[in-house]
Amino acid sequence: MQLTPEKLGDLSPQRRERLMARSNEDISSVFDHVRGILADIRARGDQASVDWHKELKADLTPDDFRVDHAEMTKALGQTPKDLLGCLEKAAVNIRAFHAAQMERPMWQMEVAPGIIAGRKTTPLDSAGCYVPGGRAAYPSTALMTILPAVVAGVGRVVVCTPPGEGLQVNPLTLAACHIAGASEIYKLGGPWAIGAMAYGTGVVPKVAKIVGPGNKYVTAAKMQVFGVVDIDSPAGPSEALLLADRTANPRHLALDFLSQVEHDPASAAVLVTDDAQLAQAVCQRINDIYPGMPRRQIMDQGGAYCAVLVADDMDQAIEFTNDYAPEHLQIVTAEPFVTLQRIRHAGSIFMGPWAPVPVGDYASGTNHTLPTGQGAKMFSGLSVDDFLKKPTFQYLTKDGLASLRQTVTTLAEAEGLPIHAMTVRERFND
User: Fold this and answer.
1) What pLDDT digit, counting tens, does each position of 244-280 carry?
2) Pick the catalytic residue: 69, 327, 335, 345?
3) Which distant-in-sequence residues (6+ apart) come within 8 Å of 246 by Cβ?
4) Is it true that domain 6-25+236-365 has CATH number 1.10.260.40?
């Protein structure tokens, strides 16, 4: 990866669009394949998953998908104590941050004399958390998806995570699920996991909502079961935008930049600054240290969505940032809280020289399940709100209804719904 600064104002429409189009993974190529898998699960339940997973375990039965007490105990015993301690410390911060998001259970107000209206907050009965796995372990994602549901008061928190050879799951992932408070865990991945949680099978229960990141097959499955269950925002490869001025340290920014690129060949990293010297210093630092970086096999395939951009001034840099709407936004400016006031679109924001994105990935308490691909213009990151319903209620006295009688009956008849009007009038005929 060789980087040179680019002038933001000189970007061609095609170059700008390519940077904006990161993470917009085309799932159309797998949509029909996933549809067939989901239809099979809906029709045959657990047996469909057994047939697809026999290559991992020859004598597989539906009950093998469930993580039992013995397997969890073994996983906890296999996990080094220092790692368990780190998971527990991260869980404490994540739990505390999400607990602070909880609203009062109910509120009401007198809209007008005789008319009381309000809203109550109730948790979902059940939720499904998808934790990626297979060739890698993502215990942090277990904490980030399970804990908000538990804090919200969801009665049944179901986890699905892909198994490897022998239908084994990384012990660290299971330990994280245990620490977070999952109700039950199943060794299923991809569309089979999403379909099982959406429709319910003999072993895996149906849930009300499915959350968590995944590859394009998982994304396609979640989009197709939406309506049968609720889902969180779509998410693609990781991305970060670094918004910096002359006060930033180029050595730190270089590693912040590369830390995003190491995720995936399709990951995106963009630095925007109003300081040309800083941009040049960051590019030089990246070019110098890149040959010795780990995970080169991934980074060598990437870079298509990476750029170091020089803006005319901070106004132009912030305008671009809001249009980009990054999943992760690092603000490294002289007055980050002042800059923050001008940010409209971002999934999670990291401010100052001591707040690199990895602290939010793991342990500062904020959630790392975030919208990508400009999704931050429409969605927020995962929170307790994703697991709460907020029905409204109203109570009217006779005088309260009388004050709305003419308004309701007139509007109902204007919409061609005469019985709506009759139900109000009838109450005054008694």
Assistant:
1) 999 999 999 999 999 999 988 889 999 999 999 999 9
2) 327
3) 274, 275, 277, 278
4) no
